[in-house]
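Problem: given the chain below (247 residues), write out its structure.
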Amino acid sequence: MKKNLASPIFLFVLLILWQAAAMGMNAAYILPSPIQILKKLWELRDPLFRVHLPATMSVTALGLLISIGLGLFLAIIMDMNESVRRMLYPIVIASQTIPTTAIAPLFVLWFGYSIWSRVLVTILMTFFPVAITVFDGFQSTKREMEELMISFRASRKDIFLKLKLPGALPYFFSALKMAIPLSIIGAAIGEWLGAQSGLGYFSKRMMTQLDGAGVFAPIVLLSVVAMAIVAVISLIERIAIPWRKEL
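Solution.
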């Protein structure tokens, strides 16, 4: 309990400071207080939880699944072939230099207000950490272990499945915990720039009404959902790879 007590205390202090600053400013359309945001969440619970949260989570889930598949595929082929790695690695890096807010409106022009314009924004933001981190996991395999397996006449398939893949699992879970918040941010950005539902769309609509608490309410909800999902992934990680603490 002592080990985990620092985070709640720090969060409580931040909320107190936030509340005091909002009360001192007395301009809820600029800086609403945490209490005002909680009240707004309760008032808008039906549209937020029944309409906009499911819309954002569907985009997040679809984009994240595609990103994981694409990232793993890129990591595997870059690990297996040096020429492919030299060809793809710069492209993967360059993809992250594209300003998301600049290219997202193009997706809206191409696909309209369909789910795919938002899914593409999510993929653009999330496949990179999966691909690079898992590739680093494959590359972290000790050469001595590979040579030992080769001396026992292990095939490349055996080396990959029995040595590289288990060794890269901690890296995969680390990438997943990075990609989940990014996927939620990507979905919200896509909704902000062009959508008819979702928490990003709802936050933008509240901004046009100068409703500060309404703008912050979906943002707080997204943060809580992201933290909950990452906590679940961390629990799965501890169950799936109990040896990680030994690394």
